[in-house]
Inverse folding.
């Protein structure tokens, strides 16, 4: 399997795992319920994935890309859960109990690259010891691949599109709030967004870490960049889906926490209200949020209820009983991060949206 194919397969499997949440089918365990300890990272028992390329296209073949390791661990956990749900089918496929035990052990021992000196996770093993990229002021915002060979890009701390930050977006349970804040602060400074698929995840993670105005800038870029620049070549569906993620997962705070649907809406000043629908376990929900209050409504007339976590309160969402909450503000742990010179997003249009 080629270096990048491992990451692609992990991503495809993740999409399969997410489907039951919408359709109402049975869902396996996707990952951990709490951040992973770093205590055993240097242990000989740690499991490594060497010779891979993660989502970032300015990285070459590396060892222990964090995104790939976490996604591989999630897939192994889900495979264990699937075999436990359907033991007869697993037995017919020749899956033995000791095999699923080894899968779980490998997932639990996945190596998580971390730099204790800087207090941040590493995109891959050794990434934070690479030399920094010299962002020349005479070429602000220019795609680096047009003036530098990939040999140089792969040896420097410069990122074309989110990689480790994508890992925090897709595997939020693996990181603490402090780790997310420190990682966003560090990686924002070296990400140039030469891919239109980067801004959406940057919007999500900037919103989660409390930088709502910066998140608004990124969400605007995610929604409009391809429409303004590439519409003549057709629709970039992945980018359009990313715009939805920027708004719903960013400002709506949508997350899946096991069997519980979590929401934590918070809006930037330029957006006065947010309204979107979801399908969860085959049931339709309506979420309406402003700067002061949030309301979540189950639209189907049914006796089935859903587990809902709204900010820090968990309860049941039932038909005919909308849940109302006051918006809970979140104070950023760090100041708004800087971007590389010439690569800051354009400010979103001020005023109501």
């Amino acid at each position: 399997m080629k270096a990048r194919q491992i990451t692609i397969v992990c991503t495809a499997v993740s999409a399969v795992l997410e489907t039951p949440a919408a359709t109402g089918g049975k869902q396996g365990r996707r990952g951990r319920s709490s951040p992973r300890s770093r205590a055993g990272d240097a242990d000989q028992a740690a499991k490594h994935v060497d010779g891979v390329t993660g989502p970032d296209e300015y990285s070459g073949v590396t060892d222990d890309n964090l995104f790939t390791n976490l996604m591989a661990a999630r897939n192994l956990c889900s495979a264990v859960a699937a075999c436990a749900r359907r033991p007869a089918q697993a037995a017919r496929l020749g899956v033995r109990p000791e095999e699923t035990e080894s899968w779980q052990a490998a997932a639990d021992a996945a190596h998580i690259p971390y730099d204790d000196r800087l207090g941040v996770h590493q995109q891959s093993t050794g990434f934070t010891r690479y030399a920094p990229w010299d962002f020349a002021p005479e070429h602000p915002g220019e795609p680096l691949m047009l003036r530098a060979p990939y040999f140089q890009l792969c040896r420097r701390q410069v990122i074309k599109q989110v990689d480790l930050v994508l890992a925090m977006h897709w595997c939020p349970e693996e990181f603490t709030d402090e780790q997310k804040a420190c990682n966003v602060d560090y990686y924002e400074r070296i990400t140039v967004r030469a891919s239109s698929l980067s801004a959406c995840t940057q919007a999500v993670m900037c919103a989660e870490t409390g930088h709502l105005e910066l998140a608004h800038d990124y969400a605007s870029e995610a929604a409009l960049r391809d429409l303004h620049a590439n519409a003549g070549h057709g629709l970039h569906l992945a980018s359009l889906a990313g715009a939805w993620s920027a708004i719903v997962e960013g400002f709506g705070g949508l997350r899946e926490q096991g069997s519980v649907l979590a929401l934590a809406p918070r809006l930037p000043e330029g957006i006065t209200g947010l309204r979107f629908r979801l399908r969860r376990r085959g049931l339709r929900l309506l979420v309406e949020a402003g700067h002061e209050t949030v309301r979540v409504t189950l639209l189907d007339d049914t006796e089935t209820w859903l587990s809902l976590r709204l900010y820090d309160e968990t309860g049941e969402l039932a038909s005919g009983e909308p849940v109302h909450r006051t918006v809970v503000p979140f104070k950023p742990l760090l100041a708004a991060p800087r971007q590389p010179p010439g690569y800051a997003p354009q400010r979103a249009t001020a005023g109501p949206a």
Notes: The mean pLDDT is 89.
